[in-house]
UniProtKB/TrEMBL annotation, chain A:
Residues 1-29 form the signal peptide. Coiled coil: none annotated. Keywords: Signal. It holds the Pfam family DUF4198. Residues 149-171, 253-302 are annotated as: Disordered. This is DUF4198 domain-containing protein. It comes from the Bacteria.
Length: 302, 188
């Protein structure tokens, strides 16, 4: 218990960038999202404006600006697209994307990194990078080595003209959407089918939360909680038009009876990991894994 | 919002329009297998609003199950430089989903300029999609969307091409906001 407390204390002292990595899973209430000014576009050279933020409520700027260092935009031809007019303000980051091709653009904040903590004597060190870079960096005599791989993706899709293109192909890294129903072809009252993959394999038995934005004008939160089937699929019947936020989390492994609670307040077990931060420590060969996925979708009225 | 209608060109006055519209169609389409005509009278309401833009309008044909069967007309701001008018085509969202997003506007024989408030009659006897339709029951769909305004969609059932020698049949509908009285006549 004492060890756990001291670890919690040291976690609290982590550098801001380091802490930001942990936030989406460490604190459930904080949601990462991208909010596009629209998802369906016509015309010669439409532009989409996008907000990026981490907040408690959905689509309200009240906590932190999104980190655009990890912004990856893929055009309908599958090639990267530059974001324009990037800026970071107190509560949100903003950028524009010029849609000069027909088809679907994928706009994502992609985080895929490995971080480790270890002790040299009484001193705790923390490093971040790739498995390869950490292998070089961490001394052979390091004690209490804990290695975590974090793979999170926050994304949205926008389409000019006809939906489709190479941008929808999964990269095979982390949790991703495989479009069965196209994410820019959603209408109130209709049922959409989404398939999720994790490192390219069906994300079976994962938990999916779907929340309608605009809670400020509604007394009740419109929220759906679903589990993916063996193919990693869910079906969602859209109750009404609006902007929705969808989150996918890996199923938590069942804890053996009598095992210590891995997650305390504000420190739940790393989803999908073999135990949480307090469970078996990950190694460079087999890091503890954190994975998360969130998606912003627009559902149009009929 | 106050809606008032123009006094000229009563919607009921179809009889006055058709006698000259039908022969005109025949004259311009001598190769047509049949001379059936589909004519539509649509009222663009005069709206008393602070900022008025003429509505974008899409007119198309659907099968009984609401699947898309062909475009008849798309009225939008054709004259803006660099085809900037196409930016708002998506606002006719039902048409955009069924057909618009597949097209590269303007499309010959379909595209046209926006219409001013008032009553307009258009004849589609020469429309190639309509000529290619197998005989059956259809719906004409008209969708209007206005910049800084609303959107409205109406459906009018019709049988095409109708029985040769039979009398003209018509159906009517009336919009609430962006569309006024709409009337469709099939002249077999």
């Amino acid at each position: 218990m004492k060890k756990r407390l001291s670890l919690l204390a040291s976690m609290a002292a982590l550098a801001a960038a380091f802490a930001a990595l942990l936030l989406p899973t460490a604190a459930q209430a904080h949601r990462s999202w991208l909010l596009p000014s629209g998802t369906v576009f016509s015309g010669q050279e439409p532009w989409v404006a996008v907000d990026a933020a981490v907040s408690n409520d959905i689509f309200y700027f009240e906590h932190n600006a999104g980190n655009l260092d990890n912004l990856v935009i893929t055009g309908p031809d599958g090639k990267p697209v530059e974001a324009q007019n990037q800026a970071k303000t107190r509560y949100r980051s903003v950028f524009d994307v010029k849609l000069d091709q027909s088809g679907t653009y994928r706009i994502a904040l992609v985080n895929d990194s490995v971080f480790a903590s270890y002790k040299v004597g009484n001193e705790t060190k923390r490093v971040r990078g790739t498995v390869e870079s950490l292998r070089q960096e961490i001394p052979k005599d390091a004690q209490d080595l804990r290695v975590t791989r974090s793979q999170t993706r926050t994304e949205t899709f926008v389409t000019r003209g006809k939906p489709g293109g190479d941008s929808l192909k999964p990269t095979g890294r982390g949790i991703e959407l495989v479009a069965v129903t196209h994410p820019n072809d959603l209408f109130a009252g209709e049922t959409a089918t989404f398939r999720f993959v994790d490192d390219g394999k069906p994300a079976a038995g994962y938990g999916v939360t779907v929340i309608l934005g605009g809670k400020r004008y509604q007394d009740k939160l419109t929220e759906l909680n679903l589990d993916t089937d063996k193919n990693g699929e869910i079906k969602v019947k859209w109750p009404q038009a609006g902007m929705y936020w969808l989150e996918v989390e890996p199923a938590r492994p069942a804890r053996p009876q009598g095992a210590p609670q891995a997650g305390g307040p504000g420190m739940p077990a790393a989803p999908g990991a073999q135990g949480g931060p307090m469970g078996p420590a990950g190694t460079l060969d087999k890091p503890t894994r954190r994975a998360g996925y969130s998606l912003t979708l627009e559902v149009l009225p009929q | 919002m106050k809606i008032s209608y123009t006094s000229y060109g009563s919607v009921r006055g179809l009889g006055r329009v058709l006698p000259w519209a039908a022969p005109l169609t025949v004259a311009f389409a001598p190769a047509a297998v049949f001379a059936a005509d589909l004519s539509l009278t649509v009222e663009v309401p005069r709206l008393d609003v602070a900022e008025y833009h003429r509505p974008y309008m899409a007119i198309w044909v659907e099968k009984a199950d609401q699947s898309f069967a062909g475009n008849l007309a798309v009225w939008y701001d054709l004259k803006m430089r660099n085809k900037e008018g196409t930016k708002w085509l998506k606002d006719m969202r039902s048409w955009w989903r069924k057909s618009g997003r597949e097209l590269d506007m303007p499309v010959d024989g379909i595209s046209g300029a926006t219409r001013a408030p008032g009553v307009h009659t258009v004849s589609f006897g020469n429309n190639s999609a309509l000529k290619a339709l197998p005989a059956g029951e259809y719906q004409l769909v008209i969708e209007a969307a206005r910049e800084v305004g609303g959107r409205e969609l109406l459906r009018l059932p019709f049988a095409w091409p109708g029985k040769a020698g039979a009398k003209a049949t018509s159906s009517e509908a009336r919009g609430q906001t962006e569309l006024g009285a709409v009337s469709l006549t099939v002249q077999p």
